[in-house]
Amino acid sequence: MHKSAVGYSIGKLLQVMGLLLLVPLGIAVYDNSHLMLTDLVIQAEVLGFWLAALVSLLAGTQLVVAFKAGRDLQGIKEGYAIVTLGWLSLTLVSSIPLLSYLISTDPQGWGNFFRHFTDAFFEIMSGFTTTGATILTDVEATPRSMLFLRALTHWLGGMGIITLAIVIFPAMGVFGYQMFRGEVPGPTKERLYPRLAQTASVLWGVYLLLSAIETVLLMVGGMNLFDAVCHTFATMATGGFSTRNASIAAYQSDFIEWVVTIFMFFAGINFLLHFRALRGDFGSLLKNREFRFYAWVIVLTIVVFTGILYIHGPASFEEARESYRNQPMSEEMFAEHYASENEKVGSLYDSFRSASFQALAIITTTGFATADFDLWPDFIRFSLVLLMFFGGCAGSTGGGMKMIRVMMVGKIAFNELRKLTQPRLVSPVKVGDEAVDDRRIINVVSFVALFVGLFILTAGLMVLFVPDLTTAVACSIATIGNIGPGLAGIGATENYAWIPIPGKWILVLSMLLGRLEIFTVLIILRPAVWRK
Q1: Could you list the residue range(s) of the whole structural domain that residue 264 is in?
Q2: Which of 13, 131, 408, 502 has the least C-beta neighbours within 10 A?
Q3: Chain segment 27-59, per-residue pLDDT in tens
Q4: What DSSP line would sit under 64-82, residue for residue?
């Protein structure tokens, strides 16, 4: 391991982050421009941002200067170390503004420093990993600069901060393929061009274009520019942070719901397929087996959910009332809430709209909500948890195991079943017309085993910190799969603020492992990796 290469690259990442933090700093300064300059500089919201930007720029520059000799020494080990340690470093510096704000709003202030640091780190890690799990109990009371910071971390984490750095600093791309492999979701990291910087530029170009189109459409639907940008960042990154307490439901607009639904679908598709489709090559999209599987899963889910909701409606009042909530509603409030949710699936169209939005929000791991799906029948609730494992396509911004891996595991299992009855059968596992080699099969099966094992371990640990088994299980898959909302105590109308500090740190690690696809993080935990 060339530690100087790791230090140099992390320094570059911190420099990029320091410059990006100037954007929410500008929003904070604008929103507090009525203050005198001396008061403005020390105002908690502004102070946090300029301090974070300064720390990030100074620390980054110092690392670049100190380890400049290591700029051309990146290899396999260095690539994985840069990704994992880089994400942790960026989360740490980006937590400073939120930490400053949380301390300023607490009467005990610095007396609860560790709790506030945990919450700030949790929220920003949730942003970068596009999980969307929040500790904010009143989003609408939070300053715009903090809301934009959350959205910005989503947008950067969706396509990948390493990928952005490769675009800005093409020299990183010379030896940066392992960084690219460690960050871009999915078992395959296809390139369009020989030069990695060109491929990274294409990915970000498509990402920017789709983001711009969605922002315009949301503004046409009635959102202001700030809300449109924040929700676009959350949609395209499949993150789910909203500027409203009721998420997308707060706008009460069918047009906005359908725009977000469509762009969640787009965000779950491999961005290289987007690029080819934009160039007129729709054949690549339609022939792609993973995309077709992704589309069929979505269509089937929507049809089944629509039928159940239209015919059956929500779960019975008594069953819905039994679902665990950290802060239970009064009987009167719950009855009013139940009636409101019942109205959302009152007609066939309403059932179809709600089913479509929520199916896409969970399958793509975006995590937005327009309905309290914790009140829906148990079959749908179980199906939603199952779909959290699936995720989007490889090369998309979605989380989960990815559709291609689910496909391959199914094919491998079916192939083995055939061989049990036909021992002499020679039948390689295929994706489309391509035979999958043994090395890739082992990689996929190993990942799925680790993913499921991590889910079981995390759920088992969370049982120690939350009083409800459903909540513990939902916490586990909602963070590993980078979904955000789950069931019961972390349902669509709940949040993560009440979870004890040790539990939050378990979930922080779970989010990081899920976003960087487990192997990237586990590799650098091996002592042998750090030896020269």
Answers
A1: 3-284
A2: 502
A3: 999 999 888 888 888 898 999 999 999 999 999
A4: HHHTGGGTT---HHHHHHH
